[in-house]
Fold each of these.
Amino acid sequence: MYNETVMKEFASPQNVGAMPDANGVGQAGNESCGDVMKIYIKVVDDVIVETSFLTFGCAAAIATSSMATTMIKGKTIAEALKLTNKQVVKKLDGLPAQKIHCSVMAEEAVQAAINDYKSKVKKSN
Amino acid sequence: MNKSNQQKLQRVYLDHSATTPLDPTVLATMLPYFGDTFGNADSVHYFGRQAAAAVDTARRTIASLIGAKHSEIFFTSGGTEANNWVIKRVPYAKQDKGNHIIVAAIEHPSIISATKQMEDDGYKVTYVPVDSKGIVDPDTIQKAITDKTVLISVMLANNEIGSIQPVAEIAKIAKKHGIAMHSDAIQAIGSVEVNVGKLGVDFLTLSAHKIYGPKGIGCLYIRGGQKIGKFIVGGHQERTYRGGTTNVPGIVGFAKALEIAVRDMEKNSTKLAELRDYFVSEILKRIEHITYNGHPTKRLPHNTNFTFDFVEGESLIMSLDLDGIACSSGSACSSGSLTPSHVILAIGVPEEKAQGSIRFSLGKSTTKTQLDYTIDKIVKRVDKLREMSPLFKQFTDGKKLI
């Protein structure tokens, strides 16, 4: 069902854990749909310097969380906002059709985290 | 993970309710029918007669092992076909009487999917609920009966949580009302006694591959005189009731597998129940926030099913797969679907928790050493996934606040 890249990412996920000093946190999904993805980012001078995630979900959800948080690390928030689920799927060499929604969640969680950061910056200004 | 690591990986198969390995004795019994004795059982010549004789012997063996007459055994391609046959063609044969079917809410997808189709075709179906331990109350069946009810189908033992159903009691109720009674005994056979006379059923489904027999063969027991329409038609096989060239090696293997399963039932069940109880007590001792699903005693000896809070089922299955352990989220037939198990929901586990339900089903070759390895890995993997779970963090953060 899963290809080797997905299994590798799932077996040794990167960026796992909550980030106490994050300045942007985004969540996608909900308990009843079976997946909850929470992405933490730390932004310095518009650049995402650190990322992490907490995910309750299937192997694909964990693999996409790991991959998405890796992909946006070092990017400016403008660049990271352009991250699409298709890019994450491509980087994972594909996902089974019924698991594509996991990559959509990753895209949504990244955007939510960036928007959370932006709204905080706005408030403090 | 490199190749040498994978080769060293210990493999522990704990998914015997999905399928079992073929018993070597069964294979040996089958092999001649893949070789020289290859004839079509319907051919009149020597080759055909040899095949027909083997099928006849197998049919008599199977019949006698479940207390049936040989003329009451109809071979099918497996349990799914036999279940579909009953659900779709018994009501058809009894359409003068009514159009209502009663099944348990925890039936296998081969029953539930068939009843859904019947609903699409205008039939009325009642899905009788179960209690929190997964057992059907015969009284609820009694209450569901209307003057239009033509068929009741309740499995003898559930495939996900192993709960054993009071089929004999339900069959008595069915008989009193003149309603046909079917039971899917696929999971039960080999673990509990299956005797069609004692159970009082009119129809019963069996499958070979759950009892160390081959895949692709099963049967439907049809009590003499019971009405059922034909499902798969073709030639004159199975007394015209089931067309298709006879699966001779499958049938021969099925009979051998059933013979062994019934012969060794008591010995295997005792051993499996001991191992199972050890496994369950260790898991419950070592892991917090966990529910053991199903009935404590009215249960198949090799079945365990747990709900691990804050952990999603598939990710645990895939994690354990990395450790060489094979288990499942209940029904292999429904994995790949995104909805939680209808059985786990039926026993009252809330939807968000139902995602974390896992079945470990033991088998003849399961050892205590394998289980100890598995227990250790489950503890570690659950810990790791909980560390990754935002729901677990929410829970522990909440606890800290209090």
Note: Residues 265-286 of chain B form the longest helix (22 residues).
Amino acid sequence: MTSQSNDSVHAQMRQIETGQTGGVARVEQTDLTTGDITELFVKLAGAGDATATLRVPAQPDAMDLAIRDAITGDHPALQVGLDPQTGQISAQTPAWQSAMRGLNAASTGPMSHFAFWDQRLCAVCGDGPDAKIVCAQDDGQVHEIAASALRLGGRRALTHMQALGPRLILAVGDAVEGFGLFALSHADGALTLTDIADRGAFRFSLNALISAACQTDAGLLLGTAALGTPRGAVGHWGPELILISADGTWDLVMGQPRFSPQGLKLPASALTPGFGLPGNAAIQAIAQGMWQGHVQTFVAVQGFAGSPPANRDDLRPELLEYHGAVQLFVSADLQDWAEVPHRLPADIGCISALGVGADALLVGHEGFGPHTVPLSHVPLP
Amino acid sequence: MSVDSRLAGLKRTVAELLSGEQTTETVGAAQRWIEARAHLSSAAIFAELQRMISPRGLVEKSPTNTRPDALARIRDSFPDAVFLHVTRHPRANCRSQHSVYKDRGPEGDQAFDYEQHWRRRNRLCLEFGATLPASQYMLLHGEWVFEDPRTVFAQISEWLGLRTDDTAIDAMMRPEDSPYAKIGPAGAFGGNNKGFMANPQLRAGRIPKVPLAGPLDWMAEPAAGFDPKTRHLAHQLGYGWDDLPVPQDDNIQEVV
């Protein structure tokens, strides 16, 4: 075992899955000296405290795998992973291993995102004009479609891929045009890729990218990252919340009223973008869970702390630059939002995941050190 | 521009509202109506006009009101007013302005910075919009109105709480039916956009695409391209090199 200094390992919370009796968190650790990336699985008690951790080595033995399976056993979303070193999919559960093999065999380059969708395991291979979307079924049957409509490459990069009923939703970030939202559907044995909204859902460059996504009872709730100009954008700006319904249409939950090719969009919330505060900021994470006897939606908003973009044409926005001031909000109906008070430190880094514990909001963020679990608790009153 | 010509629009409006027509005689009556209220502010007269047409609403579209003091006065006098910020691609706007003003004055318009003018006006509108409740300010690409007017008119009507049925939208498609879609009578000559009065039909069609990048060819010594500040604001407003909604109907005519 090699010793590592705190400064040489960057830890980023990637996923928090919670249930009635606790949960599991997945942390990505990057050795800043070698560039090697490893995963840390953390078992959480009901209150959100870490009760066991496993750092999965590059070559896990049988016991490593058994411990990992024991920790993630109740959370299927954690049982398939994307190896950041090889860009290949790994599946722990036997049910997905055939699909995994089909996907890995069909990939023509490193995969960047994957998602479960309608009994399929899907991934995007490549990050340029030749990228393709590959979907594998549990019987090993594979379908693929060119992703040229996404216009990946240059300043455009895939940021999210998530299932919503009969559609697989894909979001592409673009700091000049604004993000693009697409839906993949399946009919007659073929995959079809269609637009849901382009050009930042008609808010253009202010909606630079989709920065958070969460399955909710109402549909897929998306958070945006707003990115103004070097001199500061003017007008109503700040990030928005957008809801994609099961029928594939989108609407505004919180944001700027506007005309659009998809109809007049008036937000459900009376708040202006950025929960009433204009500025470069991102909805960093969204989670839904039970609190005070109701299903509640929690949102983490964080300010931009990087260098202002000198030239948007060359820009590929990095979410890690949104590590400024943190605000947390909660709503039971997506219309009325209340701020959740917190004492999170100013240097918490980039927030990247939220989870709802028994009596606390679990906030996943950045940290340094090989044994660091970058997770903070915000008590819920 | 003389005071008389600046009042032409007001005189025509008052004549139409008082008498139901715009003639030399009714404009004379309108002139007297205005003189009797010379002690009132513009806002008070506007409010009186509003009462005359209630429950319908007035539309004020004077480009000269895109000044901070004028916009603030409008907002303060009519706190429930809604504002529609209509934009145009900076290149098309600068070229158009240049073509209108290039022959004015002994030196033409060479000293005028159309690019900065576009930037200032749009920044002003955006900054002003941020002082309003979100539902009272909307941004609209002027190009989109020509590309897909029925969709745009329906959405504007929905925003304003007006009718959106086909009959209402059909009427909006015929601006030539407006009593103001013609040259005013003697005593109120003008009072509207000259181009509109000369050709008031709606010319729906595809707008030729113009790029954001490229030399500013209307200038005597063309700059290599727009200032970065202009490009950033253009991006915020949704203008790039491929920046217009794709029209649904491929048979529509191009509008220049």
Note: The radius of gyration of chain A is 20 Å.
